[in-house]
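[Structure tokenization] protein backbone as discrete codes

[Encoding] learned vocabulary of local backbone shapes

[Begin record] amino acids and matching fold tokens:

___
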Amino acid sequence: MLVLGALPDGVSSQVVQGLRAVLKLAPSVKDAVVLDAPQPCTNEACWILAGAAANVDQVIVAAFQGGALRMKVVDVKTRKQLAQAHRDRVSSNPEEATAWAEALACQLLVPAGCTGQVVVDAPEGVELSLDELPLRSGQPRMVPVGVHTLRIKEGDALSSRPLPVLQERTNSLALGPPPAAPPAPPPVAAPAAAVAAAPAPEPRRTWTRTAGYLTAGAAVAAAATGLYFGAKSRSDLNAAESAYRNNGGAYQPSDLNTLQSGNSAAHT
């Protein structure tokens, strides 16, 4: 058995394991070995030489090139090509590449064909179909090895995906619940100036107003007192001056008291 082509090591090793699983079903194959061939080994002469060195009767060659998979069976003794098959547009995905390699090998070497079991689990309300045939969630189904098309319908949404089916295994797939709607974005905070508390009103300065009232009241009282003493002063002085003139330019003792009272009121 030869596996040729520019595939990652992990993919090539998985393809080899898949081909070995299929060759166990081939009635004309007793055992299978992987051949070490010089690189590049791209023609029948090289393949036959590698088969002869390994002392095998037939060589199966799986060649990947340009996205296509080609498979040939060559008889070492007769140096003839016995059969060939190919598949275009083969993905480099390990599962898909292996599934198509097994499908071609079964086509060439296993007359009864090769099958694998499929089980798909889906959430309630999701409709499934495999290769256009309805498929119930969790229902096992036997299908030929290869890559099949799984269609998924949820409400008005319809999608499809490839489903690789390999030999000697149960090919299970679990579909998760639909993604939840993204959470609503948090409300955008208003600018600091907009949410800042309004300044508290200034406290009423009742003490200032009261003090003003008291001061004004004191001023009114002082003004009234001043008017009183001013009027009394003028009255006393006028009386003393009138008596002075009536007495021929002389003050009587009572006039002096009146004069002194007027001066004292004027000072007050």
